[in-house]
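Need a sequence for this fold. Nothing fancy.
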């Protein structure tokens, strides 16, 4: 399991790095403000992890262009291609994973009925995370807001769920974990995946 991030207090160095990255972006959406963030948290029974909480309250609440490819969404939104027929997102329910899960490679999935498998995948998409944005073709970046992975960013798509910023040599997406690490990785124009 990935650990070591402080999701309770905003590190001044992370905040400064985020301010620097977004300061020159003409497509940056103004910050939402502390009151909007607190209202959202109360409505959903969560506290957003730092430094994302400070980011949307004081620095920026989205970009029209990357990261991800189709822009960083305002904190209370889902992408236009998310679909209106999806189940309700339950942010206070813990995100169910602690390590990558590739649907086709899952030996346990074979023991599940199709409905049980679909229900388990649905939990990954809809429990304990905010959608940060999309790279298109059903590839969604999520910030985990509840559960053991709180504060980590995951890519969830039709093939599985992969955490960004795992520290092992065999990681699919190595980098510095957390929202600030994810944004910095993008700002440096680096590939998300280890083999690219």
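Here you go.
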């Amino acid at each position: 399991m990935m650990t070591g991030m402080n999701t309770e207090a905003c590190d001044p160095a992370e905040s400064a790095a985020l301010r620097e990255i977004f300061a020159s972006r003409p497509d940056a959406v103004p910050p939402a403000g502390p009151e909007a963030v607190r209202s959202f948290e109360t409505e959903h029974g969560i506290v957003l992890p730092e430094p994302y909480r400070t980011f949307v309250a004081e620095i920026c609440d989205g970009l029209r262009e990357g990261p991800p490819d189709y822009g960083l969404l305002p904190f209370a939104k889902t992408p236009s291609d998310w679909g209106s027929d999806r189940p309700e997102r339950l942010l206070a329910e813990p995100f169910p994973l602690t390590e990558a899960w590739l649907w086709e490679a899952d030996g346990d999935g074979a023991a599940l009925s199709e409905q049980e498998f679909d229900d388990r995948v649905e939990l990954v998409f809809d429990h304990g995370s905010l959608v940060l944005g999309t790279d298109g073709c059903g590839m969604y970046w999520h910030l985990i807001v509840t559960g053991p992975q709180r504060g980590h960013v995951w890519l969830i798509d039709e093939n599985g769920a992969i955490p960004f910023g795992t520290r092992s040599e065999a990681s699919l997406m190595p980098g510095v974990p957390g929202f600030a690490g994810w944004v910095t990785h993008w700002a440096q124009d680096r590939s998300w995946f280890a083999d690219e």
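For context: Helices lie at 12-23, 34-44, 52-59, 114-126, 179-187.
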